[in-house]
Design brief:
Largest sheet: 5 strands, parallel
InterPro entries: CheY-like_superfamily (IPR011006), NreC/VraR/RcsB-like_REC (IPR058245), Sig_transdc_resp-reg_C-effctor (IPR016032), Sig_transdc_resp-reg_receiver (IPR001789), Tscrpt_reg_LuxR_C (IPR000792), WalR-like (IPR039420)
Structural class: alpha/beta
Order of helices and strands: EHEHEHEHEHHHHHH
CATH topology of the largest domain: Rossmann fold
Keywords: DNA-binding, Phosphoprotein
CATH superfamily of the largest domain: Response regulator
CATH class of the largest domain: Alpha Beta
Distance between the termini: 45 Å
Protein name: Response regulator transcription factor
CATH architecture of the largest domain: 3-Layer(aba) Sandwich
GO molecular function, one term: DNA binding
Number of domains: 2
Shape: elongated
């Protein structure tokens, strides 16, 4: 099979062992080839421009920017780009953000390597790849659970263990305003206290440590 007929793949993951493993799985297939690999979001954008791969495998957690931001940037100049998220995150918000940004597949790193090959083939053919566990997590996402930008900022600081006073100082807002935001966050996450809010935020991918 010639290079022209092989599916070209760009692999983006900041963990070298994981990245090399994925590259090896793809390299073992006669109908696929890895054209480039990187561990950063900026590298992903640069290498995509250079190689124009058929498929890009994108990790969500990268050292310089998130994978979701890289997906958005790539799609801004290449709306035809076919991207598959490859991540450890199974939270419904992570999935929602990635698919909304334009990803056409979502793979959890613990899945069998056959799932990776299936995802690449399916997305290359113009389809989507959202396996059952991912679809269930996405289906559990509450439609009224959307947080505003400011509420997300407050939630991130809650996860970091900041008090209302500290949050107010960091965001340059009144402490009473912080309390109001916290009340809304508890309501939207359907929890009763700050501890539950932090746990839920981490489980759903609304915030990361």
């Amino acid at each position: 099979m010639t290079e022209e007929t092989q599916t070209s793949v760009l692999v983006v993951d900041d963990h070298p062992i994981m990245r090399y493993g994925v590259v090896a799985i793809i390299a073992a297939r006669s109908d696929m080839r890895v054209v480039a690999q990187t561990g950063t979001a900026s590298g992903a954008v640069e290498l995509f421009r250079e190689h124009r791969p058929d498929i890009t495998l994108m990790d969500l957690r990268l050292p310089d920017r998130s994978g979701v931001e890289a997906i958005r940037e790539i799609r801004s100049f290449a709306p035809w780009a076919r991207l598959i998220v490859l991540t450890t995150y199974e939270g419904d918000e992570d999935i929602h953000q990635a698919l909304e940004a334009g990803a056409r597949g979502y793979l959890i790193k613990g899945m069998p390597h056959e799932a990776l090959i299936e995802a690449i083939r399916k997305v290359k053919a113009g389809g989507r790849f959202v396996p059952a566990p991912v679809a269930r997590a996405l289906a559990s996402r509450m439609p009224d659970g959307e947080l505003s930008t400011r509420e997300r900022e407050v939630l991130e600081l809650l996860v970091r263990g900041k008090s209302n006073r500290e949050i107010a100082e960091l965001l340059s807002i009144k402490e009473a305003t912080v309390k109001s935001h916290v009340s809304v966050i508890l309501m939207r996450l359907n929890v009763t206290d700050r501890t539950q809010a932090v746990i839920t935020a981490l489980q759903r991918g609304l915030a990361h440590l």
